[in-house]
């Protein structure tokens, strides 16, 4: 597998590395987005296509009394 194919569906060690890189690369946009979202602490959130999971951590910070679910078709 070509390393850059991991942007589509991360797999194996290269996929784990790619998801970490994506989390870092998307961090500023995600921070901006979360700074513009108001949500109740007991909200239920579904993050479809959660990738490396960095936004799951942010959702858990905003919805500490709620329920956060992340799903992605890549096991990595």
Structure description:
With 76 residues, this protein is an alpha+beta fold. The protein has one domain (3-71). Helix content is 42%, strand content 13%. It is built from 3 helices and 2 strands, in the order H-H-E-H-E. The protein has a two-stranded parallel ribbon with strand order 1-2. Strand 1 (44-48), helix 3 and strand 2 (67-71) form a beta-alpha-beta unit. The longest helix has 14 residues, at 12-25. It is elongated and about 40 Å long. The mean pLDDT is 92.
Q: Taking all residues together, what is the mean pLDDT?
A: 92
Q: Could you give the order of the helices and strands? A: HHEHE
Q: What is the domain total for the residues?
A: 1
Strand order of the biggest β-sheet? 1-2
SS-based class: alpha+beta
- Our estimate of the beta-strand percent is 5-15%
If you compute it from the alpha carbons, what radius of gyration comes out, rounded to the nearest whole angstrom? 14 Å
Shape: elongated
- Please tally the β strands and state the result: 2
**Poorly predicted spans:** none
Distance between the termini: 15 Å
Number of helix segments? 3
Helix content: 40-55%
Major pleated sheet: 2 strands, parallel
The quaternary structure here is: single chain
């Amino acid at each position: 597998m070509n390393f850059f194919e991991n942007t589509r569906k991360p797999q194996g060690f290269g996929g784990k590395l790619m998801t970490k890189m994506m989390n870092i690369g998307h961090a500023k946009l995600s921070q901006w987005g979360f700074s513009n979202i108001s949500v109740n602490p007991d909200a239920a959130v579904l993050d479809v296509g959660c990738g490396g999971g960095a936004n799951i951590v942010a959702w858990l910070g905003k919805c500490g009394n709620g329920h956060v679910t992340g799903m992605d078709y890549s096991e990595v």
